[in-house]
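Deliverable D5.2: sample structural annotation.
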Amino acid sequence: MPFDHTSPVAGGWTVPENIAPLCTPDHHRKHIGHWTPTMNHDRTITWRHHATGRTHTTYPR
């Protein structure tokens, strides 16, 4: 599905809740769709895997 700024299903809206400073591999993981990032107030990012429910936290450098 092509990216579409107006459709949350086709790439999402550009809103603070959908913006995270990701490295290239993490950016690709987000768009492949297996992992969903959530930015926390301390700027850490918690990743959740859709199929397994597993979570992983990354920290800013």
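Annotation notes: Residues 17 and 41 are 11 Å apart (CA to CA). The first strand starts at residue 35 and ends at 39.
The annotation will be released with the project's public dataset once the embargo ends.
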